[in-house]
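thought: user wants a sequence for this fold. calling inverse folding tool.
action: design(structure=
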């Protein structure tokens, strides 16, 4: 099943960032996007995840052209079907990790999966205030928060950036198992070539062109 289809995307801010980018992702598949800092990877993720309308091109999510949806349909799609994990985790700082998970689960009519918290190693610490957690623990809470929504498509922009390599590998294994179990897909931006190599597809953003490398 096709989850995402992007056709001829182009975008510029002060100068052109990328041109004529096309890609597709099917259920259970993962795709890594690599490239130097400033090459437009995060901007492309914003376009693919419906958060930014590009200058040119179109995006289909789950077979629906997203620029034809009204605001209500778009909000519903983002809330129930998309999981966005960004470099900086937007956790509510005054709450505990667990309360952050409760809010996300409630919004998506889901329940919190304790096995998931255990596998991420945050089942005990997540009852502490977000501000008392280390950067790596906060990052794992934000990953748990997104997976608790049970999204069909995950957009992860450097999700393991604050984690040591062994923990990053464990988190990636959790993602890959999630994709199989839930028939979902993932697009991952990473600087870590060994993590990228575990994805089904690898693309490199270079000089405004997205090229398939695996
Ligand atoms: N909201 C914005 N407004 C203006 N320029 C932006 C904006 N977001 C990104 N840019 C420009 O696009 C460039 C690429 O940014 P980004 O997509 O974050 O690259 P990457 O994720 O590969 O590091 C940045 O260097 C910046 O000049
Ligand atoms: Mg970026």
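)
observation: tool returned 214 residues.
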């Amino acid at each position: 099943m096709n989850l995402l289809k992007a056709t001829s995307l182009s975008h510029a801010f002060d100068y052109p960032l990328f041109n004529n980018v096309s890609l597709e992702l099917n259920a259970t598949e993962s795709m890594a996007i690599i490239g130097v800092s400033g090459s437009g990877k995060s901007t492309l993720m914003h376009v693919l995840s419906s958060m930014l309308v590009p200058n040119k091109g179109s995006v289909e999510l789950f077979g629906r052209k997203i620029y034809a949806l009204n605001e209500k349909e778009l909000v519903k799609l983002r809330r129930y079907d998309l999981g966005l994990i960004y470099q900086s985790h937007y956790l509510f700082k005054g709450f505990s990790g667990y309360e952050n998970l409760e809010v996300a689960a409630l919004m998506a009519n889901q329940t919190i999966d304790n096995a998931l918290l255990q596998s991420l190693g945050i089942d005990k610490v997540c009852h502490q205030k977000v501000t008392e957690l280390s950067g790596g623990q906060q990052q794992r809470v934000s990953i748990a928060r997104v997976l608790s929504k049970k999204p069909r498509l995950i957009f992860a922009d450097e999700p393991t950036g604050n984690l040591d390599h062994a923990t990053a590998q464990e988190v990636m294994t959790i993602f890959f198992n999630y994709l199989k179990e839930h028939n979902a897909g993932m697009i991952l931006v990473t600087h870590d070539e060994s993590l990228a190599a575990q994805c089904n597809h690898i693309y490199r953003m270079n000089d405004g062109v997205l090229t398939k490398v695996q």
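thought: summarizing for user.
answer: Here is the designed sequence. The beta strands are 2-12, 16-26, 30-34, 56-61, 64-65, 82-85, 153-157, 185-189, 201-206, 209-212.
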